[in-house]
Amino acid sequence: MKGTNRSSLSSLFFQIVTCGYFFFCYRIIYSKKGSVPPQSESKFIVFLSCLLQLFEFCPLCTEPATAEVSSVCGTLIHVTQKCLTCSYARVWRSQPYIKKIPAGNLLLSAAILYSGSMVSQTLRMLKIMKIQCFSRQTYHKHQRNYLIPIIVQMWKEEQAKLVERLSNLEGGIVLSGDGRSDSPGHSAKYGAFTVIEQRTNKVLDVQLVQVSYPSSGP
Description:
Blueprint: H1 3-26, H2 48-52, E1 65-73, E2 76-83, E3 89-93, E4 97-98, E5 101-102, H3 103-114, H4 119-128, H5 136-167, E6 175-180, E7 190-197, E8 202-210
Antiparallel strand pairs: 1-2, 2-3, 4-5, 6-7, 7-8
């Protein structure tokens, strides 16, 4: 597959799965008219010095104020601003939460997984650029608790729709199956077995099965 096609497919897959995840789990949060879900918003790299310039003055009395980074959680930053004149204070955050999870953290984990990127290289690149990010352990937690389950869920939903559609196919269905465990000359304990409907060219099921080799002895 060409690189451009692979990139576009990865982007489409990312949009489909993340949109499905946010809609299924947290659709109530972004039900207001005109609100933009976090996966559809544009994101930017902002330098800390430039960010703190936005908090130099009080939004109420316009007098000088103090600002400091109060906490950092992966890609999320909290800035505490205090006015020196009217005692106004607030805590600003750089991104929305999805329940108790910073949206940017979850979306970055999803982008790494669904684009096929290596998490170690991605996190190392961000570290070299001094871009705040989460740990590898957090990535695997997101993958285990949120990203993989939504893929399985959406696959099962799509599979159920496909089976229902094929059950009404005129003339019945034509199934074929094939298994692949490893490249020729190698041996693997497990392999993937795929079942396809021949006329529509749709994959009905994919199963991970244990490979059994015939004994060479008597």
